[in-house]
Amino acid sequence: MPAATWIRPESHGIYIPPADCWIDPARPVARALVTHGHADHARGGHGRTFATPATLDIMSLRYGVETQHAVPAAYGETIELAGKVTATWLPAGHVLGSAQILLEHAGERVVVTGDFKRRADPTCPPFEPVACDVLITEATFGLPVFRHPPIAEEIAKLLAARQANADRCVLVGAYALGKAQRLIAELRLAGYRAPIYLHGAMERMCRLYQEHGVDLGDLQPVAGLPKAALMGQIVVCPPSALNDRWSRQLPDPITAMASGWMRVRQRARQRNVELPLVISDHADWDELTRTIEEVNPTETWITHGREEALLRWCELHQRKARALALVGYEDEDD
Amino acid sequence: MEDFAQLLDALVYTSSRNAKLRLLADYLRKTPDPDRGWALAALTDGLDFPAVKSAVIRNLLMERVDPVLYALSRDYVGDTAETASLLWPEPAEPPSPPSVSEAVDILASMTRATVTRELPALLDRLDANGRYALLKLATGAMRIGISARLAKTAFAQAFDVSVDDVEEYWHGQTAPYLPLFDWAARGAEPPSGEDLPLFRPFMLAHPLDETVVDMADYAAEWKWDGIRVQLVHVANDSGGETRVYSRSGDDISATFPEIASALDIPAVLDGELLVRGSHQGGERAEQAGAASFNALQQRLGRKTVSKKMLEDYPAFVRLYDALIVEGEDLRELSWEQRRARLEAFVPRLDPARFDVSEVIEAATLDELATIRERARDEAIEGVMLKRRDSPYVAGRRTGLWYKWKRDPLLIDCVLMYAQRGSGKRSSFYSDYTFGCWDGDPDKGAELLPVGKAYFGFTDEELKWLDRYVRQHTVKTFGPVRETDKSLVFEVAFDSVHASKRHKSGLAMRFPRISRIRMDKPAHEADRIDTLRALIKD
């Protein structure tokens, strides 16, 4: 018997007909269940939006999602939808507020991981493997070449570059939601106490993290500071600002980027990165395959990323799997 | 090996030429012999380990990783050595990296029989970055933006010697270049090359573009569509030696034995290698013509040449400069003086193998422009302009030589397939196959592929095209994506020839994307017939 016939992958999201709900839809719908706050998953304009309180805060900050249309779901909380479908939000370990969504209907359990990782992250609770019949997983780094190194090694590289260049600054490109705050929190854990300087586009999100109890230490805006004040300092900006005119106000910056893609030399080169930091908020190859083994679903559905390789792995391990041709999820900046 | 691995990575992540020069010069100064010589050879593509080839590495990987997963990874990463370095199973033992020269010794001692045992053992002594460096060193496919010229400039900078001297002394030397380091770093006598058939760096031309030159100061010649070669003959005890060098300094004497054996007077000559025929040269073709580049291509890349090849595609060299004649270095003389010496010299050579490139009489640039217009009818690439008083200098010096190619042909084609690129473009869909209609598209005609291009667009356009391909894919075949045939390219190309290799029966020469025609609907793209009408074979 085919599994979970009550869930249907459509080109712009995952649809649940009995509840008339969509998961992470790419266009406005009446009812949206949202896994996390990144732009490719959380869009504005839905009738009602179901998500964790932190994700709703992020959405209201970024897309002005109105609170009367928002239904908060705490981690572990189950919400009854129409058509005898229930949904439970569980930690995904990706960014603040990120969740997997467990859907239950007619005795079947389906888990949508959203984006996730298995490494420790001081900014959000860890991923919890949940038993299910169908696991709908991402595959952003779904190639065996992607094995993220321990984050401590990458943080040490960053601190060493700063140490060795007293007359320059290290400019780190990092996704404004999640990566930037994790990087800062990890620097703090490594004992780095100096102020960290922020591009203007980072400030509000960092404040939101702090309001949610994440310790980011002393953060200062770059705007208006003379070059001399930034020598020997760490500056964090969105990846798009790395090669932008904006960076000309900085003292001869060493261009760094924190991203899982930095594992591949030519990808770093394409972005003119001098100091690649392999730091990702997505599961790497080992985490993806380990998660499938641990969850041990009857079927694995793969939403986006390098789905061919993960499909192949499932085939080699006699696991039933399919790729969903969803559009619009891209994580070029992770 | 760690220092070399670090150098490689630093070079990969450095885009500024000056910073690269500094990194390399530092490494050359600080690293002991013979490691630095081996490293230099690896960077300038001068190492060859017959037993260690890409295919061997691929096979080793396939024994350890599923072939499909390997293929997908290789396709994404765009580089075999890097893919292998990342996929190689982490050894249980901590790394114990060899020195560069130890690695070179081990690699050189490998045979086809032992490589499958010894290469894995060597890889197991390294971490991922070390494995990358080792495999790059072993296979020579560096792709890190270090030209031989840049390496030589860094060498010159490291030891404060002239880069022209480095160029001159380099070519008779083999890795690890100990005499070269002795000379540059320790002030020893420079290596002598007098009786060796050495390559001298070519003098190169800038595109004329918008530059306006006074024809009183310049001489014009045809730009023949062959390959640039340098011929070197030296006399020695064993009866003399001749080398034919390609533009990159590769020795191609074995590919063109009839040329190598025809030069028997000591000299260094510069010219265009062509095949006899009547395709290029129009009315003059009878006495001074040449076959198309297509014909020459039959001869390229062969290590041995059959008698039939020699008869069907007889090669000759159309000479246009003389660097050295019978021991006398002419490079400091003006073009006019060298030309006179060349014209006096060539009659002493076999006329079946050598002639002199004709000088075009044109009093003004406008007059030359009119003559250049004719170049297409005569299937010549364009014209060259050479400053009459210029010495022969290595490289591309402003104002001395110009190339003025005829305007390209243009045709509107539809994007059909895209494939990921390599190197700098890895993971971008940057190789495009495009087609023309085989009839009236409104009456059910179909697209037939007519060519493939992977340049002509800017980095910004590439990003746009990559996204376009991803969003308009209708099917994938391994690394190839078939797109929905909605995007029109204006394709520029130099000429088109009949070809049995392609379904359309056509092969374009030097096609490149000239514009992305977002404004043009696909059914308005050109038809095969339009392209076929441009054949001049």
Written overview of the protein:
The complex is a heterodimer of chains A (334) and B (537). The radius of gyration of chain A is 20 Å and the shape is globular. Chain A has helices at residues 53-63, 151-164, 179-189, 200-211, 227-230, 265-270, 285-295, 307-316, and strands spanning 8-10, 13-16, 21-23, 31-33, 48-51, 70-72, 78-80, 86-91, 99-105, 108-112, 134-139, 170-173, 196-198, 219-221, 234-237, 254-258, 275-277, 299-305, 320-323. Chain A folds into two domains: 8-145 and 282-323, 4-Layer Sandwich (Metallo-beta-lactamase, Chain A), CATH 3.60.15.10; 151-277, Rossmann fold (3-Layer(aba) Sandwich). Chain A contains eight helices and 19 strands. Chain A has 334 residues and is of the alpha/beta class. In chain A, the strands form three sheets. Chain A has a seven-stranded mixed sheet with strand order 7-8-9-10-11-18-19, covered by helices on one side. Chain A has a six-stranded mixed sheet with strand order 1-2-3-4-5-6. The longest helix of chain A is centred in the middle third of the chain and has 14 residues, at 151-164. Chain B has 537 residues and is α+β, with helices and mostly antiparallel strands. Among the domains of chain B are: 206-405, D-amino Acid Aminotransferase, Chain A, domain 1 (2-Layer Sandwich); 409-532, Nucleic acid-binding proteins (OB fold (Dihydrolipoamide Acetyltransferase, E2P)). Helices cover 34% and strands 22% of the residues of chain B. Chain B is built from 20 helices and 20 strands. Chain B has helices at residues 2-12, 17-30, 35-43, 54-64, 67-77, 80-87, 100-109, 115-123, 128-139, 148-159, 163-170, 178-186, 257-262, 285-288, 293-297, 307-312, 335-345, 365-374, 459-471, 528-532; strands spanning 206-207, 218-223, 227-234, 241-246, 267-275, 315-325, 328-329, 354-356, 359-360, 382-387, 401-405, 409-420, 429-437, 447-453, 473-477, 480-483, 488-493, 495-498, 506-509, 512-517. In chain B, the strands form four sheets. In chain B, strands 12, 13, 14, 15, 16, 17 and 20 form a seven-stranded antiparallel sheet that branches. In chain B, strands 3, 4, 5, 6, 7 and 8 form a six-stranded mixed sheet that branches. Chain B has a five-stranded mixed sheet with strand order 1-11-10-2-9, with helices on one face. In chain B, a hairpin with an 8-residue loop joins strand 12 and strand 13 (429-437). The longest helix of chain B is centred in the first third of the chain and has 14 residues, at 17-30. Chain B is globular, with a radius of gyration of 26 Å. The interface between A and B is medium-sized, with 24 and 27 residues.
